[in-house]
Amino acid sequence: MLGVAVFIYIKMSLPQEPHRPYLRFGNPFKMILPKGSYLSPKLLALLNSFEETLAGRLKSLKPGDMEDILSLSWMKQAISTLCAIHTDVKTLITDLELPVSDWDEKWIAVYLDNSLKMLDMCVAYSSEISRVSQGHLYLKCSLHNLDGSSTQFMKARSSLDGWKQHINSKNQRLENCFAILDSLTESLDLPKIKNSAKGKVLMHGMYGVRVVTVFICSIFAVAFSGSAAKLKDLQVHETCLWTDAFVDLRDFISGEIRSIYSGGKFTALKELEAVDVSVKNLYPIIQDGIDPIDTEQLELLTSDLTAKTEKLSEGLDLLAKEADKFFQILLTGRDALLCNLRVGSAVIKPVQPNNNVHKQMVK
Fold it and tell me: At CA 3, angle to CA 182 and CA 75, rounded to 5?
């Protein structure tokens, strides 16, 4: 789940920072750190810097324009933000100088389990993006047949029927994402760390990454599924420096999704909804043939559908590339950890990787 190539650049550990007296003005993590556990000024600065950066990334995801909410460009930005956050964790671990040999077996086991689930979710999202993209063929066939005889109009209508049936079909891989999200949500709580100040910083950093990853992935699942019934309102620790930014984004996006679906729309994706509206406007005109007086309207509606179809197709292509980038970050991080475990002869029974995951991703 941590999903980063965090182990490639990890240095050999230096002597661990000794515990130092608690600063007079207080440690902001006193509420969630065990009694008697303190962070040195250096470690606290590292954690604060990471969490402030995370807060900034969350703020950047709040759309400034209502039209940008759940657009494909926003979804691309959301995945790009995930990639950046996972890279931020790699930097944090490098700065902590905490090698794999000092990691608790529980941390490694949780990472291996969660990262595998995340890979499965990436495969599911990529398959859904591909499925929606395939609907573009039906639309192209329909548009190709909208400039000729009544026989061609019949073919165009048949293609639009095919598009409707295709776009409303269910993707079982996507349905499985909700069970994975439930499992990941259950494992979000901060673990108890004993005798390791660096371990506490690491776990707090990982906690933020995991929360944001589960949130964004749940938004994707709900947006693709066509229903807000399984929308998650994740609760987070109030003392994190990114909490306010997260809650603000969560409430804003979740509220908009519920509003969209309560209004009767079949999808929360702006470009896909725009194509659906355009198809519904065009279909009645070609349903019973074309009268001469409708020719101008046909041209306008055909032009509108062409533009919206191309925008949808281009947006899906860009989103697919960003999803693949995130998949590679997850896969590289997992492979690097397993390599480090073999080299370090760590005593642990890792979750067996799914050798078919990457093959499924690139299909």
Answer: 70
Question: Coil, strand, or helix at residue 353?
Answer: coil
Q: Kindly report the length of the chain.
A: 363
pTM metric for this prediction: 0.81
Q: In the structure, what pLDDT confidence band is assigned to residue 277 with cuts at 50, 70 and 90?
A: very high
Angle, helix 41-60 to helix 243-262, in steps of 10 degrees: 20
**Sign of CA pseudo-dihedral 176, 178, 181, 182:** negative
Q: Strand, coil or helix: what is 333?
A: helix
**Residues 6 or more apart from 312 whose CB is under 8 A from it?**
72, 132, 136, 271, 272, 274, 275
Residue 68, CA distances (Å) to 2, 74, 276 in order: 28, 6, 18
Q: What pLDDT, in 10s, does the model give residues 86-112? A: 999 888 988 988 777 778 788 888 888
Measured in degrees and rounded to the nearest 5, phi and psi for residue 154 equal: -65, -40
What distance in Å separates the CA atoms of residue 169 and residue 171, rounded to the nearest whole number? 7
| DSSP notation for 48-80 | HHHHHHHHHHHHHTS-SSGGGTT-HHHHHHHHH
Q: Which residues of 221-259 are buried (b: 16+ CB within 10 A; e: fewer)?
A: bbbbbbebeebbeeebbeebbbbebbbebbeebbebbee
Tokens representing 112 are: 């291996």
Q: What is the pLDDT of residues 176-188, one digit of tens each?
A: 899 999 999 988 8
In terms of Cβ atoms closer than 10 Å to its own Cβ (0-12, 13-18, 19+), residue 141 is middle
Q: How far apart are the first and last CA of the chain?
A: 23
Helix (H) or strand (E) holding 359: helix 357-362
